[in-house]
């Protein structure tokens, strides 16, 4: 049996899709929704439609603080940390929980399924390359949702005050201790426009810079992106790779600029995919 934690900040337009994908799953023991700093109806919706869930209404708008508060209600392991704007495939909880019983997998994740049907051409080209990178294929994180075993959580006591919680978790584990689990998927709507894509990817880059500066990674990894992208640049993937590199350059410059004032960073969020979900 597993515990699921869903942090939520103003997610009224999408959270029902997420919770609907969770509540009837085999293997679910406890569902905790950690509303934090909400100024919309997220908490009201959860309490009205999901009485089986533990609904926290935390005043402070902070994802990592919400995760720490929610962890006080854990009843079983592994623990799934699932973003409110995503959906899990049927039986994903059972499939991942069973796979983690091998004792070797301490950090897991469902396979990411990125929906770019409503995204602009440039956003689609970016994800076409991004999804081929080893960081995504090999596993875990980059989608903000992950699963930790009880033994795995012994690597840290609380989530530190960082922007990139999934990056922090991932870098506590060696490659052989983490993996995506075949047969379980997480569905994510990509940003519809380039501006929103740059915002969320800048946030991830900024978070990684923060982790490195604070020396919070115990298992840092080398990412051979340059070699892989160079190979693709001279293939039929040349145009998508050039688009990817251009967008990545903008993200790097923007993150470097924002890092100067990282202590006062204002969380940047993609609203375009949330608007889409609400209208569906």
What's a concise summary of this model?
GO terms for molecular function: glycosyltransferase activity. This protein has 12 helices and 8 strands. It is of the alpha/beta class.
- Rg, rounded, reads 18 Å
Shape: globular
Mean pLDDT: 91
Strand content: 15-25%
What share of the residues lie within helices?
40-55%
Low-confidence stretches: 276-280
Q: Strand tally, please?
A: 8
Q: Structural class of the helix and strand makeup?
A: alpha/beta
User: Number of helical segments?
Assistant: 12
Helix and strand element order: EHEHEHEEHEHHEHHEHHHH
Whole-Å distance between the termini? Answer: 32 Å
Largest sheet properties: 8 strands, mixed
The order of strands across the largest sheet is: 3-2-1-4-7-6-8-5
GO molecular function, one term: glycosyltransferase activity
Domain Glycosyltransferase 2-like: 3-109
GO cellular component, one term: plasma membrane
Subcellular location: Cell membrane
Can you describe what's shown?
With 280 residues, the chain is of the alpha/beta class. The chain has an 8-stranded mixed beta sheet, sandwiched between helices. It contains 12 helices and 8 strands. It is globular. Helix content is 41%, strand content 18%.
């Amino acid at each position: 049996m597993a515990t699921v934690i869903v942090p939520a900040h103003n997610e009224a337009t999408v959270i029902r899709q997420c919770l609907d994908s969770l509540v009837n799953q085999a293997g679910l023991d406890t569902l905790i929704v950690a509303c934090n700093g909400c100024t919309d109806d997220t908490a009201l919706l959860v309490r009205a439609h999901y009485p089986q869930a533990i609904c926290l209404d935390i005043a402070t708008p902070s994802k990592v603080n919400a995760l720490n508060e929610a962890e006080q209600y854990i009843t079983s392991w592994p623990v799934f940390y699932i973003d409110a704007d995503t959906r899990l495939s049927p039986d994903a909880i059972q499939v991942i929980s069973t796979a983690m019983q091998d004792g070797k997998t301490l950090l897991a994740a469902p396979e990411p399924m990125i929906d770019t049907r409503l995204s602009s051409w440039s956003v689609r080209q970016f994800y076409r390359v991004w999804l081929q990178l080893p960081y995504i294929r090999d596993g875990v994180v980059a989608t903000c949702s992950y699963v930790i075993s009880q033994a795995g959580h012994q690597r840290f006591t609380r989530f530190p005050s960082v922007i990139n919680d999934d990056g922090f978790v991932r870098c506590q584990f060696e490659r052989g201790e983490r993996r995506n689990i075949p047969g379980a998927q997480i569905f994510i709507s990509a940003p519809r426009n380039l501006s929103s894509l740059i915002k969320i990817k800048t946030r991830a880059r900024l978070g990684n810079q923060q982790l490195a500066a604070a020396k919070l990674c115990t298992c840092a990894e080398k990412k051979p992106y340059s070699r892989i992208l160079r190979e693709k640049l001279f293939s039929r993937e040349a145009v998508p790779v050039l688009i990817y590199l251009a967008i990545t350059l903008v993200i790097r410059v923007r993150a470097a600029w924002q890092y100067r004032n990282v202590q006062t960073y204002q969380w940047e969020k993609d609203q375009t995919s949330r608007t889409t979900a609400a209208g569906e």
